[in-house]
Amino acid sequence: MEYEKFLQQISEFIFVEDPIEKADIIFVPGNRYPQMAEEAARLYQRGAAPYILPSGCHSITEEAFRGPIDKREQYDGDYQTEWEFLKDVLVKNQVPEEAILREDKASYTMENACFSRKVTDDNRLVINKAILCCKSYHTRRALMYYQKAYPETEIIVRPVFPDGITSENWMETEAGVGQVAGEIRRLVQQFSIWMKEK
User: Which residues make Cβ contacts (< 8 Å) with residue 109, sequence separation at least 6?
Assistant: First the structure.
């Protein structure tokens, strides 16, 4: 019983999801899956926000952007950055280019958030409410950094499930356990660095 309670507590902490409300912008942290940008496009088409800001150059663990992980036949451009890839996903899903802002320097989540803040400030956008589209098990860490970059903003989290890992099934597969354990490790490590810098 205690073990099941422990698993439930992990699920409640790592996986975040909020009801969608009308917002000022949709954030898409850099990644190599198209599904997060596809979901952002769906939300845009529903009128959830007037702007989408994809962010990213390439992962800090890689020397260059290595292309999409999924749906390569649909998104087959010669992308140099995560931003170029995510922009193409958005455009191919009927988001007009003028609604897409640009951040193509970030290489990890904290930079996605901080550099996105610079973009919105440079564009003189007031962000009272934002939607954050990211991978299901990345939601807590992404929320932590975007909330730090936008302390005055209400951030609504929209999880996406490109690899099928959810709060209900992560403990059932080696891949799910690995991803969630990795998120816990990164959260603790990055939070400790963050607190030391205060």
Answer: 29, 138, 141, 142, 145
Q: What CATH number corresponds to the domain at position 22? A: 3.40.50.620
90 assigned to some structural domain: yes
Provide the b/e sequence for 90-126 (b: ≥16 CB within 10 Å).
Answer: beebebeeebbbebbbbbbbbbbbbbbbebbeeeeee
196 burial level (CB within 10 Å; 0-12, 13-18, 19+): exposed
Q: Identify whether 170 is part of a domain.
A: no
Torsion over CA: 111, 113, 115, 116 (sign) = positive
Residue 2 lies in a domain: no
Comparing CA positions, the residue from 159, 23, 35, 37 lying closest to residue 90 is 37
pLDDT tens digits for range 152-196: 999 999 999 999 999 999 999 999 999 999 999 988 887 777 676
Q: Is residue 93 part of a domain?
A: yes
**Does pTM surpass 0.90?**
yes
Q: The domain containing residue 32 runs over which residues?
A: 16-164
Number of domains in the chain: 1
